[in-house]
Design goal:
By secondary structure, this protein is mainly beta. The chain has no helices and eleven strands. The strands form two sheets. Strands 2, 4, 5, 6, 9, 10 and 11 form a seven-stranded mixed sheet that branches. A four-stranded antiparallel sheet has the order 1-3-8-7, with no helix packed on it. The chain starts with a strand and ends with a strand.
Amino acid sequence: QAQLVESGGGLVQPGGSLRLSCAASGRIVRIDDMGWYRQLLGKRELVATITSGGNPKYADSVKGRFTISRDNAKNTISLQMTSLKLEDTGVYYCQADILALNGNEEYVASKSWGQGTQVTVSS
């Protein structure tokens, strides 16, 4: 019913910056909270979330360095990452709480995930 597609990952040196983007598509009725998670060595952790009203929350490890933003008209969110550290390395996933219509014209609420994008911080 809905899909999330991330972009913007890559290789960066410590202290550098990257910007991740995520776009939701499909028969979307409403998107509530959206966010970014990252996974390394099998452990997935919250990075940042943002409500439909634009209220952000951050993991303590990224406060002051990362900024999450969203465009409700375009169903997109972004994550601006600065002062990147080695420990920021991981696969970053976009997540969204989406209400969408299925093929039977039924409303379906789901926690949708993107396919992930690799961020590698290395010198």
